[in-house]
Amino acid sequence: MAEETTAEGDESTTNATGKPSSPVVGFFYQQKIIGFVFSPIPSNFHRRERVGTPKSYTNAASSTNPWNTQLRDLAKQGHYHQALHLYRSLLRSGSSPPTAFTFPFALKSCAALYLPLSGQQLHSHVVKTGCQSDPFVLTALISMYCKCRSVENARKLFDESPLSRTLTVCYNALIAGYTYNSGFLDAITLFCRMREVGLWVNDVTMLGLVPGCTGPMHMCFGMSVHGFIVKYGLDTDLAVANCLLTMYVRCGSIELARNLFDDMPEKGMITWNAMISGYAQNGFATQVLELYHEMESLGICPDPVALVGVLSSCANLGARKVGLKVEQQTESSRFGFNVFLKNALINMNARCGNLARARSIFDEMPEKTLVSWTAIIGGYGMHGQGEIAVELFDKMIKTGIKPDGAVFVSILSACSHAGLTGKGLGYFTLMERNYGLQAGLEHYSCMVDLLGRAGRLAEAHGLIESMPVEPDGVVWGALLGACKIHGNIELAELAFNRVIAFEPWNIGFYVLMSNMYTEAKDTEGVRRVRVMMRERKLKKDPGCSYVEYKGRTHLFMVGDRSHPQTEEMYRMLDRLEGLVKELDGYEKTDPERRNEELVNGVGVHSERLAISFGLLNTGLGMEILVIKNLRICGDCHLFIKLVSKVVDRRFVVRDATRFHHFKDGACSCNDFW
DNA sequence: TTAGGGTTAG
Q1: Among A250, A281, A311, A669, which is most exposed with the fewest C-beta within 10 angstroms?
Q2: In this structure, what DSSP letter does residue A419 have?
Q3: What's residue A44's pLDDT?
Q4: Cα A375 from Cα A345, distance rounded (Å)
Q5: SS3 content of chain A, % helix, strand, coil (to 5)
């Protein structure tokens, strides 16, 4: 049961300022705030409160002083280094001492550049010049301390200054500061106090408070804040709406974020970006591409932030054509030097099969970040070129870049896929010993995969048993996969039982186990797995594949004979199947020839239908069939389905369960994927 | 007309 607590006084009472107090009722459960009900705000509620400026400050000499105006302009344009340089010159010149007009801009520059020592020095200058009672200076000081991760100093200043307790802006700065420093409960408490003393909250208060909702457990609170904001019209502020949208994404409710997005009468670039990034981070790649196309059709030019989200989704979908278009868009725009965009381009090219292009982008980058290295190392790993990945990793360390957990996942996975067992084990040890990085589940699953692929199944099992964290389905799944490769039924049974405890709905594991029993001619085993599947009402999904056509990705399923062109299609498919068998034969007798043919592309054609395809080595122990050209007169829908039937039997087609069903009556496609 | 806030990569 949730206990209801009145956080602050009764509405009928008045406080020291003479204004009626505004109680906030919080619902607490197990000492955690789970919801809020806000009391009504008086009708004379103001969205923004103007602060009276002290007379001493408004003298013309202060605001028209050329030093001050120049400093203001530099800080406003984001030239913080130059602004601080100018401030120091002003001190050295001795011609005019800094005034209350000078400090906010200098403090803002320190905060933006994270210069806590300079900020403290500025604080002492403020005290020396007697400007600490200026509201703007005081707020800027509080904000500076918060941004410099010294929220205790900000609080001390706030508590020691009677002025701060009467100013909405000071509360706003400190609330935002608490949120920024992960002190969400402190932020809420201060918000309650602010209302208790009768101060008006405004949209900026909300901008400081809402980003504190960072996970599903804050969802309830976030929604009550949303209700409050709507009630008092704060949602008309674009920034507040953007903030709420991001809050929903972070709390895991992408649907509510989309509802808000659709309801917003006006959308800014940040609105589009927040929605696109929200979709991209949650794996809704198709929706990202849809929004991107919508932006284009509305004539809105996406900025680098949107393009990063689009590229990341192209990488996930393997949507090479859209990715290429974005790349060209980037080259012809002024965003060419954006590091985020370059990193996303490396990732997109690597994952869409163009490793050479990924490498040239990487090589041309004048400044490479840890993410740039991770992307290119991951790219080589993905394509089975572990040696180059290792070479790059070592080079990265030599350049003085400190690795993090993510780059270790890339290199361990690269070692695993290239069979570089010793190297991988070395890096795993190095990770903790030299860099103090604790191995997480992802690292352990790479290591189990690495040992398992090398046939060291007992060691892989031992590693799982020694893990300091509870192994998850991915870790046990890696062991199960390795048992399949090496035909170890006994250990496979153990891994299978563990993995289905984590993912009982994952049909793949049952199929894998059943196939192992079939290979071992253990009919009883096969029967047991089938019974389990039946009991759990699990049915094998029909095989499916997907294509990118006209910039959209479509899913298609197998099996259908209703089409008028069926006969012709099946003749083609027979020939296609013959070709695949022929290639199979080469695999044993002349593997080089097989690879050569596949890399160059092979195909069959008739008068109305044509298909050619090649292979892409993913380095993940599987090959992806790339349909290079498909020329069809008439409706190709069924033909694609049928091709996929042949294809699925021979090749692993990338997981396509997340994408839309095939709808287009496409008649000519080039360069599938 | 100076303070407080929202969106990006592996």
Answers
A1: A281
A2: T
A3: 40
A4: 9
A5: 60, 10, 30
Of A7 and A276, the one with more pLDDT: A276
How many Å from the CA of A486 to C1' of B10? 32
Inter-residue long-range contacts of A20-27, CB under 8 Å, 24+ positions, other chains counted: A20/A198, A21/A195, A21/A196, A21/A197, A21/A198, A22/A195, A22/A196, A22/A198, A23/A195, A23/A196, A24/A191, A24/A192, A24/A195, A24/A196, A26/A188, A26/A192, A27/A2, A27/A3
- Cβ-count burial of A72 within 10 angstroms (0-12 exposed, 13-18 middle, 19+ buried)? middle
Rounded Cα gap, residues A306 and A292, in angstroms: 8
List C-alpha distances in Å: A513 to A451, A475, A510, A528.
20, 16, 5, 10
User: What's the rounded Cα separation, in Å, for the pair A489 and A486?
Assistant: 9
How far does the CA of A470 sit from the C1' of B6, in Å?
37
For residue A315, is pLDDT > 80? Answer: yes
Residue A168 contacts strand B, CB under 7 A: yes
Give yes or no for residue A554 having a pLDDT over 70: no
For chain A, give the percent of residues with pLDDT over 90: 43
Between CA A310 and C1' B9 the distance (Å) reads: 11
Confidence of residue A569 (pLDDT cuts 50, 70, 90): low
CB A615 within 8 A of CB A599: yes
Does A409 contact strand B, using a CB cutoff of 7 Å?
A: no
- Closest nucleotide relative to residue A269's CA, C1' based: B7
Question: All domains of chain A, ordered by start, with CATH?
Answer: 3-38 (no CATH), 441-540 (1.25.40.10), 544-670 (no CATH)
For residue A613, the model assigns a pLDDT of 59
CB A488 within 8 A of CB A454: no
Cβ of A176 near strand B (distance < 7 A): yes
Q: Which two tokens stand for residue A438?
A: 């604790």
Say if residues A411 and A427 touch (Cβ distance below 8 Å): yes
Lowest mean pLDDT across A146-160, A194-208, A272-286 = A194-208
The two three-digit tokens of residue A427, written as one number: 């890096």
Amino acid at A134: D
Nucleotide nearest to A103 (CA to C1'): B2
What is the Cα–Cα distance from A459 to A448, expressed in whole angstroms?
A: 8
* Degrees to nearest 5, angle at CA A630 with A629 and A636: 160
- At A99-132, the pLDDT tens digits run 888 899 999 999 999 999 999 999 999 999 989 8
- Please tell me the total number of residues recorded for chain A in this structure: 673
Per the structure, the residues numbered 190 to 229 in protein chain A that have their CB within 7 angstroms of any atom of strand B are 202-204, 207-208, 211
- In this prediction, residue A496 has a pLDDT band, given cuts at 50, 70 and 90, of very high
Bases of chain B with protein Cβ within 7 A: 1-10
Residue A670 CB: number of other CB atoms within 10 A?
11
What is the C-alpha separation between A646 and A73, in angstroms, rounded? 66
Q: Which residue has the higher pLDDT, A221 or A659?
A: A221
